[in-house]
Amino acid sequence: MTDLVVCIGEGKGTWGHVQKVIEDMEWGSIYVVTNKFGAEKFTSKKKFEFILIDENKRLTELVEDIRKQIHGKIKDFEVGVNFISGNGKEHMAAMSALLKEGFGIRLVALTFDGVKEL
Description:
Layout: E1 3-7, H1 15-23, E2 30-34, H2 36-41, E3 49-52, H3 59-70, E4 78-82, H4 88-100, E5 104-111, E6 114-117
Parallel strand pairs: 1-2, 1-4, 2-3, 4-5
Antiparallel strand pairs: 5-6
């Protein structure tokens, strides 16, 4: 079963979208890339693991922080990814970390027809 990686930013307007992506499909494991604020506030009905980042760090540092926290946890060759929440710097870091770990990327999002691969 495919694992899921999502970003959670400080703008709560997108959290509902991310919660639906997490909860409306079956995932192997779920990883939420976020900062301290997101880790304190974000919840889901499904079990997930935070990948904590400090958004004040440089992009290259964020990539390595994410890689260290995700290394060895995802056993498949590809991963579902949702970047509706968060910002470009976080998205770049997460994408770079996943690609450097050798994963294929499946972009997934909530649509009017449910959660779909894009």
